[in-house]
Structure formats: C-alpha cells, structure tokens
Amino acid sequence: MKIWSLVIAFVFLFAQDNLMAQNADGFTNVKGVNFLNAGIGLGSYGLYGTGGLPLTASFEHGITENISAGISLGYVQRKYVNDWKYTYLIFGARGSYHFNELLNLQEPKLDVYGGAGLLYRHWKFKYTHSGGDAVDDYKSSGGSVTVDLHAGGRYLFNEHIGAYAEVGYGISPLQLGVTFIF
C-alpha cells in the first residue's frame, strides 16, 4: 500500500493543468507529457517458483522531445501445493526513447518507444506445512538488481486513454494494459 501511495504522489508531482497529451503532430514531441501504464504481464523472467500473473505499472514524464524517464513497478505471487508461497516486488527507474520522429510516423494516435532501466527485485518465500505431529515452517527473503530492457507501443483511443503492449526483459517478457496520457 505504501508503494502505491508513493506512485500516486510521484504522478501528481509531475501533473500540471496546462499539459497537453499530444500536439498536432502526434507523439513527435513528448516533452512535458506524462505516461501512466497499468497492466498485466504474461510470463516472468528469472523469478524462481513463479507462474503467477504479474501486475505491472509504470510512470514516465517527457523530459525532451523524444526522451521520457520515470519509474516501473511489478508484483507477482504464486502459491503451490504444500503451502509454498513465492512473492516478488519489483521496482526501479526506466527511460524511453520515442521513435515517431526518427521513423517519420505520421499516425498521431500511435507511439513507438524503447528503452532501458535498472530494477530491484525483492523476493520472499514461505513454506508452511502441518502434517501429523510435526509442523515445519520456513521463510526466506532477499533481493537482486537487474536490467530492464523494453520495446513497446501505445495506441490512443482518445486524447487521454489507450492501450499499450511491451516486450522485453525485466518484469515480464510481454506486458499488456491500459495507458493514460496527461
């Protein structure tokens, strides 16, 4: 819950009333534009014991005409028989280059981007088993740093809402969801 409060505070820090989601040329200039993605991941890389459905979110703010930077979050949990439970919380920084100007894309509702970042993966697992007279409990947690590589696109249904898809390495090999532009 604290993480989501920080994300919301971070988003509102950059939100301004005079920001426009896109100019007349579409996504050829993302300076001052905020991107908020919320979705699900299909699959998970390097997360032992997973198979659960990752929940993902990212926020980026356009800092130049073609570059945006922000944060990324992920959460995945999986329970197995005999009460094995794995939980991963993934967060970090990311940056993206928006290719519309470079590729001379004239579709104002389409944004094509790719980028990289640095993520921290906090993991914990717990085993609770009560069989017969013996009760065995085991807990462990830790973390590691990994890279985030992503390539994606978003398509706007109107000025502020659309869908996005990303492929890459970090939280999930494929992410699908809704995007908000403000």
Task: Describe the fold and architecture.
The chain is mostly beta strands. It has one domain (about 1-180): Porin. Helices cover about 5% and strands about 60% of the residues. It has one helix and eight strands. The longest helix has 13 residues, at about 1-15. This is Outer membrane protein beta-barrel domain-containing protein. Keywords: Signal. InterPro entries: OMP/PagP_B-barrel. It comes from Niastella vici.
Q: What is the radius of gyration computed over CA atoms, rounded to a whole number of angstroms?
A: 19 Å
Structural class: mainly beta
Summarize the main sheet: 8 strands, antiparallel, barrel
Q: What is the CA-CA span between the terminal residues? A: 24 Å
Number of helices: 1
Compute the number of structural domains.
1
Report the CATH architecture.
Beta Barrel
The low-pLDDT segments are: 11-24
Name the CATH class: Mainly Beta
Strand content: over 45%
Helix and strand run: HEEEEEEEE
> What fold name stands as the CATH topology?
Porin
Tell me the number of strands.
8
Strand order of the largest sheet: 1-2-3-4-5-6-7-8
Tell me, what's the shape? Answer: elongated
Helix content: under 10%
What is the mean pLDDT?
83
Protein name: Outer membrane protein beta-barrel domain-containing protein
Keywords: Signal
InterPro entries: OMP/PagP_B-barrel
Organism: Niastella vici
